């Protein structure tokens, strides 16, 4: 095995140098830590099978030419009773140490307890208990809540970290082609980043108070931002020019584009949802129904409905054509004043996920408002939720310093990202191509992670 190890590390070094890449360059292309590449090149670790496939893809070569043919699977080097199940292997781009035996000692297998009408999954992560419950709402799902055998993977370092803001990053938005990220911050600016080389493309200045929201148009040509300076602004995403200033005299806490890119909806500090023309700023509808300030607003994928979250502890769904209120979801209602901080439509428009200061993520039927699932895993308030483009996963960001990835249909606890330390994470956004997840928070950074 020593000969195979030496052969692999020499082949890897040679291939990297032929490309004129540093170890940092290779790590970025693979989506792994630099330390992982160093361990491979020193012969201390082997890449996992999926990482080997990624290596071949990056170098445009074969297992044989990279010296990977004779490298044993990590499981083959362990006694059988210590081998990690296949489902626990790290996915593409993750450091082998994440799914090592040492990691398994930190993250135990989930125990599943079932009862009549209720299923509770318990996992132990770093000494803390993670609960996942499925409660019956007004209309229970027609199929039973499935269990997941996957073990959540803990990541502490993001492959890409963007520095540039000088205050909390409050919201992120991907360009439709997944090549750029717009970030809004309490420092009153919007940055536009190039994901490939981590360069700062544009810096939008114009707001005079902290920003609360940012959204990239579905067409990709414009970016909208909302601020506590009582204005929303629209910017040209191609050349960085300021295009439009809109104000309704209230904080703009949330902003969202209609799927056709013609209209914008904003969630206002006065508890209203306002829909206006994204070209000339003309008001079209004002939706009144919330009894407290708005936090988030989102259009349905078909453009026919709008969902809004509020400090009044409700999520409300509106008819986007006439402003009629469809129904009110009160699943986050408590005796304590927990605001609804996040709402997100599933890609097929059939479900809505919402997050709250009550530390939960709830999923419910978007047609009748019936409750489907509640995810309990965060230890502090949830600030943001987002669906994967294929609708299979949900990501949530929290004041507990984590981004957590869940199975949208089986409740499986998949990833826990801790790259922001113990500081609150205020925003999370899934790239449109489904390959990456971006997060931002109080540490002032934007971090980009490999998606499941």
In short:
With 452 residues, the protein is mainly beta. 11% of the residues lie in helices and 40% in strands.
Secondary structure blueprint with pairings:
Blueprint: H1 2-18, H2 23-30, H3 34-42, H4 49-59, H5 101-106, E1 111-115, E2 118-125, E3 128-134, E4 153-155, E5 160-162, E6 169-174, E7 180-185, E8 190-194, E9 199-204, E10 211-216, E11 222-227, E12 231-236, E13 242-247, E14 252-257, E15 263-268, E16 272-277, E17 283-288, E18 294-299, E19 305-310, E20 315-319, E21 325-329, E22 340-345, E23 351-356, E24 360-365, E25 371-376, E26 382-387, E27 393-398, E28 403-407, E29 413-417, E30 425-430, E31 436-441, E32 446-450
Parallel strand pairs: 4-29
Antiparallel strand pairs: 1-2, 2-3, 3-25, 5-32, 6-7, 7-8, 8-9, 10-11, 11-12, 12-13, 14-15, 15-16, 16-17, 18-19, 19-20, 20-21, 22-23, 23-24, 24-25, 26-27, 27-28, 28-29, 30-31, 31-32
Helix pairs in contact: 2-3
